[in-house]
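hey can u check if this looks right to u? its 321 residues, i copy pasted from the old doc so theres a chance i mangled smth
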Amino acid sequence: MVLTLLKAKPETKLGKQICKVVLDHFEKQYSKELGDAWNTVRFNYPFELEKDLHLKGYHSLLQGSLPYYPKSMKCYLSRTPHRMPSERHQIGNLKKYYLLNAASLLPVLALELRDGEKVLDLCAAPGGKSLALLQCAYPGYLHCNEYNSLRLRWLRQTLESFIPQPLVNVIKVSELDGREMGDAQPETFDKVLVDAPCSNDRSWLFSSDSQKAACRISQRRNLPLLQIELLRSAIKALRPGGLLVYSTCTLSKAENQDVISEVLNSYRDVVPVDIKEMARTCSQDFTFAPTGQECGLLVIPDKGKAWGPMYVAKLKKSWTT
């Protein structure tokens, strides 16, 4: 289990909480504008939650181990069985932490988001990766898209639970078929994340409805075509020189390596980006299976490292002449 912490001070009478993303932004801006005077007015937030996590055996995930690991990213991982309670959604109150599978952070980190960039999360629900993107940097614009209406409500609730008012203005939520995004916003984004609909092995394996499970298995053969169409749309929405990360939570080669190979064989202006270094750096916390691709890595659940499955591939749209 991983906690992506949006640090906050204890609830005041007004129930307001400090967001680490905004605080980091203020630190950069006001320390320059106000100098020493900023130290007298800056927000202070306690570290009680983090201290409690350390006492329970949690440790920081990948802190400082990747050259592009953002200092603002605060994620904690436990290798021992321990379940943190989920915080209830309360309108007007921001939550202090978000629970997610540790491997879900790898696609976000691979995107290398920088302050001011325009970023698209094409299949954004339930919203955990969108929140992690906001921990990485202060984007100029974050577009969170989700076509499924039920999942869209889940996404909106997630954003309402974690995003403070100063950040709301840089976020747009839409319900567009992801396959149409490229035509709607061509060459708009610096970074695009395609966390594609997939077989979702872990969830499917524990399905309680055998009829629904059988239906899902029969539909599985149609997923690669959808994933390729989503990637084609994402490439069209990506500006030249921009980065695209594709991810799934399945072990299926047809939905992972084969999809990426098909896209690379179809585009002259899309090139693979080597991410083998990420696998080497993260091997202490994750187990990786070979993919046969320098641009792709596959996290597999293992004893003591039960994260994943998670496939991550990184591509770049080059300039054409």
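The mean pLDDT is 83.
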